[in-house]
Design a protein that fits this description.
Blueprint (H helix, E strand, L loop, with lengths): L1 H30 L4 H26 L3 H26 L2 E2 L3 H26 L5 E2 L1 H24 L5 H7 L11 H33 L3 H13 L1 H12 L3 H26 L2 E2 L4 H21 L3 E2 L1 H19 L1
Antiparallel strand pairs: 1-4, 2-3
Helix pairs in contact: 1-2, 1-7, 1-8, 2-3, 2-5, 2-6, 2-7, 2-10, 3-8, 3-9, 3-10, 3-11, 3-12, 4-10, 4-11, 5-10, 6-10, 7-8, 9-10
């Protein structure tokens, strides 16, 4: 019980650190005249995935690469099977903008690339893992994605739903009287992320040993769900405000960030071992991404409650199978 509470405390510090980092970075960015749309689509998106990034770096450094793998893939699966399902169940998600239309198939392509990389080892008769070179390739793809995102903001000739909704996200305004505080929020957030990440990894390993399960399982269903709470809250709020593109864009963007930044950074720090059934987890992640294609391109780009129930049921079935 102590180990489990330690995980929850670590995740709480991670979320608090990510929130402080986003608040500080957003104010500093706005102080330098950076567009609120760019802040909403980049800095805020980074902040919601900061907990996963820190946990993975800590896991890679301490030799807990299976935890790092489980955290990323588990977060990607829970974002689509749990977070998206909850948001769509509250209010149907109706996609209008071209940006999200592009990002949905892009996520499927990225997940396909990751799965192919994971299969390299078994096809050569070796243990599957993400190598440093795999990490570099994924990071290069992330730079392309980041360029496309910023270009969309700077060159959009007509209003795109996602860009418009991101610009409407209330960001704390920079204040001349809070200049020092604004800057201090960034290192304070980083410190909280560091402490929270260390506690999450340490207590996750201890909890896995106590209950007799692989650390990858703890990463898939305890750490991943915990670190996905910012995405859940953000997407539910966006759904309640009828900001459908932002609700889905937050989820898809988080998964792309996890796949092209969080996992690659871990792999560059130290090769990420793929645990037993890890390739299966990647395939499940691919299937969740693939099921969005017919929903958006054959059903008038709308996720309603029946689809939300299907996604949630699929996630529960997957969780039962993997933990059984």
């Amino acid at each position: 019980m102590t180990a489990f509470l330690g995980i929850l405390l670590g995740i709480t510090l991670l979320i608090a650190g990510g929130t402080a980092l986003v608040a500080g970075a957003s104010k500093v960015a706005s102080r330098f005249g950076i567009s609120p749309m760019i802040i909403g689509l980049t800095i805020v998106g980074f902040g919601t995935s900061a907990p996963e990034l820190v946990v993975n770096i800590m896991g890679a450094i301490t030799g807990q690469s299976e935890l790092a793998f489980g955290n990323v893939i588990g977060s990607n699966i829970s974002n689509l099977g749990l977070v998206l399902a909850c948001a769509a169940f509250i209010r149907a998600i109706d996609i209008q903008g071209a940006v999200v239309y592009r990002e949905v198939p892009l996520l499927l392509l990225i997940t396909t690339v990751m799965t192919v990389m994971a299969l390299d080892g078994p096809l050569d008769g070796e243990v599957p893992y993400f190598s440093r070179s795999d990490g570099v390739v994924l990071l290069l793809l992330f730079l392309i994605f980041l360029y496309m995102t910023v270009r969309d903001v700077l060159t959009a000739e007509e209003d795109d739903a996602l860009i418009t909704e991101a610009a409407m996200v209330p960001l704390a305004a920079a204040s001349a009287n809070r200049f020092v505080i604004d800057w201090l929020l960034v290192p304070a957030g980083l410190v909280l992320l560091f402490i929270g990440g260390k506690w999450t990894v340490d207590f996750s390993v201890e909890f896995a040993e106590l209950v007799g399960v692989p650390t990858s399982i703890v990463g898939l269903f305890v750490v991943a769900i915990g670190t996905s709470m910012p995405e859940l809250v953000t997407s539910i709020i966006a759904a309640l405000r009828r900001e459908s593109d932002l609700a889905l864009g937050n989820i898809i963007g988080s998964n792309i960030f996890n796949s092209l930044m969080v996992l690659p950074v871990s792999a560059v720090a130290a090769p990420v071992a793929i645990p037993d059934n890890g390739v299966f987890d990647l395939v499940v992640s691919w299937l969740f991404a693939a099921v969005l294609i017919p929903i958006f391109f054959l059903r008038n780009a709308r996720i309603e409650r029946p689809a939300a129930v299907f996604l949630l049921a699929a996630y529960v079935a997957y969780a039962v199978y993997r933990t059984g």
